[in-house]
Amino acid sequence: MSATVKLNFIKVTKPREFVVHVQLAREPVNAFHAEFWQEYAAVFDNMREWYGDVRAVVLSSSLPNVFCAGIDFDDLLDLKKSTSSDAARTAMVLRRYVLAFQAAMSSPERCPVPVIAAVHGVAYGLAVDLIAACDIRYAASNTRFSIKEVDVGLAPDIGTLARLRHISSNASLGAELAYTARTFSAEEAFNLGVVSRVVEGGMDEVVRETLSLAEEVARKSPVAVTGTKHLLIHARNHSVGENLEYTATWNASMLQTEDILKAVLSAKSKSHKDVNFEPLPTVILPPALKPKL
Question: What is the rounded distance in angstroms from the CA atom of residue 223 to the CA atom of residue 256?
Answer without folding.
Answer: 10
